[in-house]
Amino acid sequence: MITALLLFWPALAALLVLLIKGEGAKKVAFIATLVEFAIALFAIVNFVPDATTQFALNMPWVERAGIGFSIGMDGISLLMVLLTTFLVPLIVLSSFKHDYKNPHVFYALVLFMQTGLIGVFVAMDAFLFYFFWEVALIPIYFIAAIWGGARRIPVTFKFFIYTIFGSLFMLAAFVYLYFQTAGTELAAHSSNVNAFYQLTLDSATQSWIFWFLFLAFAIKMPVFPFHTWQPDTYTESPTQATMLLAGIMLKMGIYGVLRWLLPVVPMGVSQWADTVLVLSIIGIIYGSIIAIRQSDVKRLIAYSSIAHVGLIAAGIFTLNEQGLQGGVIQMLSHGINVVGLFFIIDIIFRRTNTREISSLGGITQTTPALSIMFLILLMGSVALPLTNGFIGEFLLLSGVFQYNHYFGAVAGLTIILGAVYMLRMFQGVMFGTKSESTEGFADLTFHEKAVLIPLVIMVFWIGLFPNTFLSISEPAVGQLLSIINR
Amino acid sequence: MISIILLSGFGIISLFVGFLKSKRILLPLSLLFLAIVFGINLLDWNDTQSYFENMITIDNFAVAFTGIMVLSTLLILPFTQHYVTRNDENIGELYALILFSLVGAIMMVSYNNMLMLFIGIEILSIAMYVLAGSDKGSLRSAEAALKYFLMGSFFTGILLFGIVMIYGATGTFNIAEIAGSAEALGNGGVNNVMFLLGVLMIIIGISFKVSAAPFHFWTPDVYEGTPTVWTAYMSTVVKTAGVAAFYKLMDAAFAASYGSWMPTLVAIIVLTLLIGNVGAVVQQSMKRMLAYSSISHAGYLLMTLLAFNNLSTSAILFYSFAYSTASIAAFGVLQLVSRQRQNENYEAFNGLGKTNPLLAFSVAVSMLSLAGIPLTAGFFGKFFVFSALIENPDMMWLIVVAVILAAVGVYYYFRVIIAMYLHPVNEEHAPIRSTSFMNVMLIIITVLTILLGIAPALLSDVL
Q: How does the average pLDDT of chain B come out, rounded?
């Protein structure tokens, strides 16, 4: 029941927000997302840390075809739901000083998007998963295309076509897998996740199914060379859309790999794991090097995101416990850090009207609070010990190192390169002499602090007590491994 | 059976009502007739009866398809309101023709004998030839009618020739007996040249009627010239009837010779998908885009003919209805926009999201449905079609081709959405006027599309 509440509450709230014209919409949306977060906290308190799927709800959907409305949460899902419900209120709060046209539509779309995202993370039926996968895409497309920057129309169009293209392959693979499953007395086949896990396909079939599914997930993450939509879309979207895309939507791809790729076609995965690792590591180096060369800070973070996601992808395809656990915890950390960084860039942009490193500088002189928050989030991003990034990247790198020493060594460059582009950005933006545009730069307002302080707390919480979160996902990851190694 | 007789009678009544001074009554009267037929038709559910020496069989297949065709017509007719309010001459004929053509369509889904199939197609087609040319002042409409008529008669001839060949080879017109005789010919008739030639000609003849490539060439021109309401009818009811008739024929009469005609049909499907989708990409006119999109949807529908299982009929039923509701909304709004802005191109839709949120929303939902995006009926339409086919493992590659081309489809459907919501409204353009009756119909269509996208079992479990 809790899962259904988590799933439908944002959609209901969205309908309510649609009816509220004017400025009231953002307040109602904010309260609705806080309620959603409270429901998620309630779920986490009642969660028993074992490998079972909890708070499950199974109802027939297309009964004759064996397609069920099956939702539920295991440890991995729960962490993703927690991330989503934690970030969305902050994203809504971060927009309070923006004057978007038609705010009721804007906030309704954000809430619809949340339903889609939660749906992806709790769906325990392949077609339900696909359904929410696309449902999440439509609101974000409109948010980015209506409220985005100057080149928003072609850029978001490319993003939309690209992701639809990938997900249609996923659908084809799901339909094929569905017809291989054994059914119940009611229906000849079943699309439940457990029916998919029980499949035993020959390795040639697994091999092509792997690519059909991987294509969809790789485009969403994005893994090199399927990333070309990402920098433009992140840059052109309004900040809140960028936060949703980078903070949460990207995790749909990684979650998809964990839930629907690794355990379903383990032989296909082991056949192609090397290829994926090489692609991911190319992505790490490529994203980092381009990030170093960027002059636009928003683009810089966009490329750094490619590098970070590359490491997560590499870690989970090693199929060992460190890699998988690192991937899960790094999904949380990356979501928190990247949302914080995009918000800080938005703060700077709104006060100076520029995102060029060269025309910024000297901001630290007048802004102690902003500087500290920025630095903490940045350190989280470059994986300094005691921060959240360290835990994730350490586990991921040790996983990759176990898999192959050389891969581990090259992937380790991410920490060095990350420090290079992040510190270069911080130096250019915050230190040095004041420029024309940063003259009279005001420190954080109450609203801005209200967004950043929870994020900073989480940076340290995950950095100091990672076990709070690792222990939730550990049994689920263990079970995942036992299915893969069957 | 009563529905066929009733509809014929109602058609004649409409003709006489057309002589009255006030023609306003025609539209509500026709809608009432259709509602009655819709209800009467449902009485035959689960009560299979054959009529006229087994010429026609009303089974659940026939009832279900009759139901969705009558319902689609019901949804289309409100968009003829401008005919009635302008009090045009002789509009009684138009309503009579629609009712008569529906008789043909019902015969096409309930025939048991190839002669009835032929008569059904002719009744339907002749009414459509006239409707295509019903805008008497317009050259384009006249051109469309002439083109449609000449081409249509030619292909009807081919179809008839095919039927005769089959008769020559098997000695019967009854589709069940044809299957039996084909068995007797050995190998399901594969070794008999006359039989094979007959099957081929029938495939060509019906392919023309459902506008499958390479027999699609008339579609864009005819659709463009025909008054938009009748284009909507052409691309929905006519297509539904054609595909259902095609499926019934192949399943009942020629299933045993599957191997011999399958390659031809696969070639037709691939060409149809390719030409439909690629052709739609390059169009500037929304109406021509919808014409090409209707070609591509014929391709998806025909994919069900490659697998005869219980999923196939459900898939055709669901897909045709999903496609019909979406097309009706699109053509309905297009008619309003193109008449008031004198422009059928995408630009005419610029800023519609601001000036007419309701019209824009219903078009957006129908575009999403045509593109096959979840939460709309179109998604489950594609899903059921692919599911029906996937049990045939040789056809995996065809599904891949169809999936890639479906992604191409997203491109041109989204151009409409982008025009409506993202392009600024043209200053000179006043908001589009629409009547509250049409608005209500658009709301019903949109709700139907979304409802079937959330609870597909409402329709997919019917057959």
A: 89
